[in-house]
Amino acid sequence: MQSTGDPARVPAPLATDLDGGCPVDVGETNGVGPARRGRLTSGIEAWLVTRYDEVDAALVDPRLVLSAPDVEAELVARGELPRRFAGQLQRARRSLLSTDPPEHTRLRRLVASSFTARRVDALRPRAEQVCEDLALALGKESASGDAVDLVDSYALPLPVVMICELLGVPTEDREDFRKWTNAIVFDQGDGPAVARYQAASASLDDYFGALVERKRDHPADDLTSALVAAHDGGSSLDAAELRTMLALLLVAGHETTVNLIGSSVLTLLRSPRQFAALRAHPELMADAVEECLRHVGPVGFSSLRFTTADLELGEVTIPAGQAVALGLWAADHDRGRFPDPAEFDIGRPDNRHLAFGRGAHFCVGANLARMEAQVAVHTLLRHFDDVSLAVPENELRWRMANTRGLVELPVRLTATIP
Ligand code: HEM
C-alpha cells in the first residue's frame, strides 16, 4: 500500500522518555547498539534491549525466562532488584506473566479460547453499541461548544465495559477498578507508592475472591464462571491462580486499551491528512490502528525476564543470571527496521510491530484491543465531522510508567449533520 505522506512526529517526551526517566533514546537505537545496562523507574537495574532484531529474537529465546527465583534472590542481594519487586513477583508467582512453559501453557490454555479472532468478532456488535451510546452522549455534552474529555468520556468506558462483561464483573464497580488499576500500574516507585500498590493488589484479590464465590453459587455465561467450573471440575488451576488470572485480565484488559484509544486519536489529530484519508477510506481502519500501535504503543518494556545462560544479542553478550527488559517501543522506533520511524503513516507497507510482544507470552487480548480501538475510532469519525484539540498540545499531560497514556484529551467536536 502506498504511503499517504503527512509526517506526524512524536513529541519529545514520548520519543525519548521510555520509562519515565530511563535514558533510552528510541530515535537513536541503531546508534546505541542492541542492549545496554540501565535503570528502570521502578528501581530495577537491568539489561535494556532496544534494537528491533534483538528484541524480536529475545522474545522467543528459551534462555530468557520469566520465573527464576534463584536469579531474583541474587539480584536482590546485589541491590539490582528492589526487594519489594521480588516480593511482587513472589505473590504473582503463578500468573501468565510470571511463569514459563509448561506451567504457563497450562494457564494460558484456560483463557486463550475466549480471545480468539472468532470470539472477538462476536463481541464487535456489542462494542459498536457501547461506542454508539458514548458518542451520542458526547454529542450532547459538546453541543454548546464546550470542550469534552475524550479519555474519560470515551476511551475509558469502552474497554472497561467490555472486559467487565466478558468476566462477568458488575460494571458499577468500575470506579474501584480504575482506582486499583491505577495504583497497580503507576505506583511503581518507592515510599508511599509501595503501600498503595500493595493495598490495591490486596483489594483486587479480595474482590475476585468474593466474585468467585458468587459465581460458584450463581454461574453465568461469562469467563469467571467458566474458570470457576474448570477449577471445581479438577483442572489444575488452584484458587490463588484463579484470582490472579482474573485480576491480570481485568488490569491488562483495560488500562492499555484506554491508552491506545486516547493516543491514537491524538496521533490522528496531529496528522490531519492521514485523518482525512481515514475518513474517506474507513476500510483503512485496521491498518491505521496497527500504525498507532507501532507509533504510540502503550507498553514500553516487556515484563522482566532473566537469563538462564549467556545470551548473545548482536555484538553484546548478556551473561547468565541477569535481569533483562525488552524495549518494545524502542524496537518499534528502530530506524534500521522501520524507515523514518517517527513518521506516522497508515500506509506503511511492512508494519510488523512488537507492541503486543511475541512468542508464548504474546498478548492474549490483542484481538480484543485491536477490535475496540478500530470500533472506537470509526464511531468517532462517523459521529463527528470535526474533532480538534481544545488546549495547546504542550499542555497535554501524560501518565508515564511502563504503560503510558494521556491523563485527559480535551477536544471540541462538531457533530455530523444526519
Ligand atoms: C493496546 C492494548 C494492549 C497492549 C499494547 C498489550 C500489550 C501486551 C504485551 C506487550 C504483552 C506481552 C508482555 C511480555 O511478553 O512480557 C501482553 C501480554 C498480555 N496481555 Fe496484553 N496488551 C493490550 C491489551 C490487552 C487486553 C485487552 C487484554 C485482556 C484480555 C490483555 C491481556 C494480556 C495478558 C493476559 C497477557 C499475558 C499473556 C501471557 O503471558 O501469556 N492485554 N500484552
From TrEMBL:
CDD domains, sorted: CYP107-like (cd11029)
InterPro entries assigned to the protein according to its UniProt record, in alphabetical order: Cyt_P450 (IPR001128), Cyt_P450_B (IPR002397), Cyt_P450_CS (IPR017972), Cyt_P450_sf (IPR036396)
Record's keyword annotation contains Amino-acid biosynthesis: no
Gene3D superfamilies: Cytochrome P450 (1.10.630.10)
Pfam families: p450 (PF00067)
Location of the region described as Disordered in the Swiss-Prot/TrEMBL record: 1-23
Entry keywords, A to Z: Heme, Iron, Metal-binding, Monooxygenase, Oxidoreductase
Family indicated by similarity: Belongs to the cytochrome P450 family.
The protein's name in its UniProt record: Cytochrome P450
Source species taxonomy: Bacteria, Bacillati, Actinomycetota, Actinomycetes, Pseudonocardiales
